[in-house]
Structures are given as C-alpha cells and as structure tokens.
Amino acid sequence: MQPKSSRKQFLGLSLLLGVALLAVPFSTAAEKKKTLKIGFAQTGAESDWRTANSESMISEAKKRGIDLKFSDGQGKQENQIRAVRSFINQGVDAIVIAPIVETGWDPVLREAKRAKIPVILTDRSIQTADDSLYVCFIGSDFYEEGRMAADWLAKHASGKGNIVELQGTPGSAPANERRKAFADGIKKYPDLKIIDSQSGNFELTGGKQVMEAFLKKHGKAINVVYAHNDFMALGAIQAIEQAGMKPGKDITVVSIDAMRAAVQAVADGKLNCTIECNPLFGPIVYDVVAKVLAGEKLPKRMINKDELIDGTNAAKLLPTRKY
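Above: the chain sequence. Below: its structure as tokens.
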C-alpha cells in the first residue's frame, strides 16, 4: 500500500501537470484569435452614398470582430493625413483610405511603408510615381461611368443639346475621370455642347445652388444636366422645379451613383438616367485585408461592375436597393 504522503505528492503533481497541459491549447487559441486592428480614413459624410459606404465598413467590421479605427476627414485631406499618422502610431495591422483628392499622399504613405503597414485604397484612386506605396485599389471605374452617361445621352437626346455640368469635389478622382470621360464621349456629337461647368462639391445644396445660378444665367437654353453624383442631381431637380420647369422633360437630367432616392426619381420621371456606383465596400475590403496579411499576391486594381438605370428598369430595381 502506498504511503499517504506519497499519494498526496502524486496527486499534487498530476493536478499541476493537468493544469499545465490545459494552459497550452488555451494560450495558442488566444494567439490565433488576436483581434485585427484596421484604420479607415473616410472622406466625410457629404452624401447618402458616403453614409452607406461608412455604414458598410463599420457594420462589417463589427460582424467580423475587427477593431476598426474610423476617422471622418470632413472633406479635408489634411484631416485624413493626420488620421493615417495616428493609425501608424497606434500600430494598426492595415490602413484603408478613401482619398479625398488624388495628389499629396506620398509622404504619409512612405511613413506607413516604413512601419510595414499595408495600405489599401477604396473608392478613389491617387496619383503617385511609386505604386509600391499602396497594395491595391478597390472601386468603380469612374471613367467608364462617365462614358456610359455620355453614350446614353447621345442616344436619347438624338445627339443634340446644350449641357450644364455639375462637377464633384475639385481634384478628386471621380470628378476628374467622370468629367474627362463625358467630354471624350460627346466629342463625336458636335451638336452636344457643354455650355457651363461648375463644382457642387458632391453635395445636395451645392448642386441646387449651382443649378440656380445656371438657370439664372442660361435660362431655357439649357437642355441637359450632367451631374457627377446623385446628390447634386437631386439638388438640380429642386432648382428646376422651383424655376417652374419639369425635370426629366423640359430638362434631361443624367447622374451617377444610383442611390435609392435617385432610382426613385428615375421611376418618377424626374431623373432620366443614373449609373450605378456601389458603396457597399465592407465585405470585399476586409476580405482583401485578410489576403494581404496572409501574404497573397493581389491585382493592383479591383473594379466593381456597375449598372445603368433608366426608365426601362428603375421600377423593377427599386425594391432591391440597399442604399
């Protein structure tokens, strides 16, 4: 028979060994479940599109248990640059930027590169001589959107008309590319002419104010409004109605984004056409971040497919709009 003291020592050693063995897998599991920390520098909240974009990023991060450091740039690049530097100091695993403008990013992106933090651009691209400063761009083809708008207008306006253009934020990728593509697209139609062009800064009030000025200056000589986004188009529609005219009939209105309010306006006959630009980036952005951190090789540009919405399909698509 084993002495009591020996049995106690054996039981004590067994208990300690059991605790030690149990501690190993729990420690490993905790390491595997390390919370991912991501910084997101948003442009601001200038439109319903941007609000939907932010909500997609925030809600998807919560769903995946990601610690998202969200910063609203309030329409100023300096705020975004400050946010990116803060993300670097916090030691985030990745940085996501929706750049307000295309230029001026190289210095802060070099800082992120030195810190070995991958940077992913969403929605808007940048101009840089060193493409290694960011991993990839995820977004729509703004040039293609502008081209689609020009083609639709040329077909439905019989290649004739005086156009006023509501530009987006000066220096931004969507404003630059949508303007160039539309201008390129109507070159082969000499009777389609842009008679005035001004920035409404992608805002409803900006679009309304610029359209009011256009109507005061050009009056009934205006046949077409080309807006770089839906919010400005909806503002222009308000101005047209207040001037005693019928948007969609007296003046053709063409826009980009395909927000729910704009699709409703198409169904109502006030907006003639809108080109989709999907804002729901959350799932694809976090999938890409996971692949980047896993060391996968990715394409430099990942382009979302966009759809044209006009009177032929607006009513059918309206119930499906999530933004």
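Residues 1-31 have pLDDT under 50 and may be disordered.
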